[in-house]
């Protein structure tokens, strides 16, 4: 059965192109033109992924993303933003968007981003054995994509989960933000503030004091590393 993608964009020309490319790639596509209709469509028939424009009538994309993140099924979101709206793009990532593209964008690149996010949502890539990563009360199961802290399940986005798992697989190793962007996001280029935002969100969820992190520490002049508590 084809995976379902909900496209939310009030620009009919853009939406038609996006829908056509996604359908050609084998996805079942539904289109709505405003934020309220998007939430109604998700409630009626949850999609596997939402392509969400930032600027929408009725409810804007940031509010739609926030409400989607309140759902227990954690539907992935790829956000479309205006090229210069860096503050809104960062806010979208803070609210839990799994990926973003700035307008104007290549429809082929959008399809690749959608495919990448859905592949990660489905679990480990082919050929990669599931793992259980455990350290100091923090446990990550990469097969079912579950993370727990002292027995309490954490609510992580796809990228947050992948970033945490990658850092825990390589304890005490410092990674540059560009390295993390390539290894976790699969991007050879892009806005490195994406990594910074996701690290900040992870710290808020796994650190006792996010302002004084003990697990994901900053390596000044380099990037970040995971400091094992059980070392």
From TrEMBL:
Residues 130-228 bind DNA. Residues 4-118 form the Response regulatory domain. The keyword DNA-binding applies. It comes from the Bacteria. The modification 4-aspartylphosphate is found at residue 53. GO terms for molecular function: phosphorelay response regulator activity; transcription cis-regulatory region binding. Residues 130-228 form the OmpR/PhoB-type domain. GO terms for cellular component: cytosol; protein-DNA complex. InterPro entries: CheY-like_superfamily, OmpR/PhoB-type_DNA-bd, Sig_transdc_resp-reg_C-effctor, Sig_transdc_resp-reg_receiver, WalR-like, WH-like_DNA-bd_sf. Keywords: DNA-binding, Phosphoprotein, Transcription, Transcription regulation, Two-component regulatory system. GO terms for biological process: regulation of DNA-templated transcription. PANTHER family: DNA-BINDING DUAL TRANSCRIPTIONAL REGULATOR OMPR, REGULATOR OF RPOS. This is DNA-binding response regulator, OmpR family, contains REC and winged-helix (WHTH) domain. It comes from Micromonospora auratinigra.
